[in-house]
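Curious: why this fold?
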Amino acid sequence: MIKLHDLAPVAGTNRPKRRVGRGTGGKGGKTAGRGTKGQLARNKVKAGFEGGQLPLTQRLPKLRGFANPFRVEYNVVNLDVLTQLIEKLTLETGAKDIEVTPEVLRNAGIVHHKGLIKVLGRGEFNKKATIHAHGFSKSAQSAILAAGGQTVVVPLPFGDRRPPVKGNALANR
């Protein structure tokens, strides 16, 4: 059985660092791989110096992270906002069974006229209503069902595939 103290690198894999500038007897003598004369041969140049040209580190913009062009973004609606909307709709229409669809939310000005809708669980919900949305958090779904309502998941417009790429014609091609 091999033991830890028996382990050693394969012969020839760990080569020592070449010591240059130690006389003309071996490889790396005399100019030590720096060429002849000039600023670079005399060890007076800072790392990244490009002879007065604006250095690469200054030419490039700061790294600002990565934007996923396939990210699915939702317009968020919380339960307390839905409760207020349902109360308003029952006063206006007088109906007992209220259906809240994405179109109703858009017409009420609660969400943007484009985009997907997700219901989140902030606030109290005690109205019996059918809520249509593209997504529900677990807390929101359980609160709606506990109040005697229904949740209907609206299918995503791009199906089970990834969403279309955001950005210009050159984005992620």
Notes: Residues 74-153 form a domain with the Ribosomal Protein L15; Chain: K; domain 2 fold (CATH 3.100.10.10). The chain has a mean pLDDT of 88.
